Amino acid sequence: MSRRKQIYEGKAKILYEGPEPGTLVQYFKDDATAFNAKKKGVITGKGVLNNRISEYLMMRLEEVGVPTHFVRRLNMREQLVREVEIVPIEVVVRNVAAGSFSQRYGVPEGQALPRSIVEYYYKNDELGDPMVAEEHITAFGWASTQDLDDIMALSLRINDFLTGLFLGVGLKLIDFKLEFGRHWNEHDEMRIVLADEISPDTSRLWDVKTNEKMDKDRFRRDLGNVEEAYREVARRLGIFPEGGPQDLKGPKTMQ
Questions:
Q1: Which is nearest to 84 in space by CA: 12, 180, 19?
Q2: Do both 106 and 11 map to the same domain?
Q3: Nearest CA to 26 among 90, 77, 66, 87?
Q4: Are residues 116 and 75 in the same domain?
Q5: Same domain for 115 and 172?
Q6: Is 255 exposed, middle or buried (0-12, 13-18, 19+ CB in 10 A)?
Q7: Which residue has the higher pLDDT, 252 or 76?
């Protein structure tokens, strides 16, 4: 396998130098973390499943006009993406009360919210990814007012589309996290695009009939059968990986 220079390693993915300028290779790991990496583990085959699920959802979003960093899947664990400048804000869209939201506001888990709520969190592990307001974001220069307008519009559009898509396969989209980046084209024009991934790692998905959790909460809460839940999401979306989630070693890193 060709040697590639590692650009960045996060909790669930590694970014390598791409085969051509302006591209990166995004490698999906089996590592799992929760509670700001206080809890760690490995979910066998998770990277393979998330690669396929995220590929499918990014492609479907592109079809309805949502710009993304996704170019194409390369193999079981890797995809080619456009290089972007990540906006250091995590966007969380909530449709149903769950997790930290229920704890903060005393809303019973599973209660539908009056309308979708969009929250912003500053991407900083040392600070525990604190929730921030638009005032913080614009004052510290993390994003401009126009950037935020674009991010909000895209987030709500993505939510509308994915809510319907998942409902069609018997899943409720409870909430999910999005990340965005700035992408410049050959004319030096910038636009905000969806980046990172969309998968059971970054979304809460419950079965419509039973409310069974089909996402990373199974790992967070020690519910077991984590890989099986991810695989079931892939099965419902019609995306089984070829030959199942076989392991694939990452490319060698060049210092």
A1: 180
A2: no
A3: 77
A4: no
A5: yes
A6: exposed
A7: 76
Whether 252 shows a pLDDT value over 70: the answer reads: no
Q: Based on the fold, state whether residues 104 and 68 are members of the same structural domain.
A: no
Quick one: tokens of 169? Answer: 């396969």
CA torsion through residues 250, 252, 254, 255, sign = positive
What is the residue type of 185? Answer: N
Range of the domain at 105: 85-207
Give the predicted TM-score (pTM) of the model. Answer: 0.90
Identify the pLDDT of residue 76.
Answer: 95
| Two structure tokens written together for 56 | 């499918």
Q: What's the burial of 80, exposed, middle or buried (CB within 10 Å: 0-12/13-18/19+)?
A: middle
pLDDT for the residue 37: 66
Given the structure tokens 């079809």, which residue do they identify? 63
* The two three-digit tokens of residue 185, written as one number: 């084209």
Q: Determine the Cα–Cα distance for residues 95 and 164; give it in Å rounded to an integer.
A: 12
Interval 85-100 mean pLDDT:
97
Do the beta carbons of residue 117 and residue 94 sit within 8 Å? Answer: yes
User: Binning pLDDT at 50, 70 and 90, where does residue 250 land?
Assistant: very low
27 - beta bridge partners? Answer: 14, 78
Tokens of 160: 């509308």
Please say whether the beta carbons of 252 and 14 come within 8 A.
Answer: no
Q: Three-state SS for 215?
A: coil
Number of residues in the chain: 255
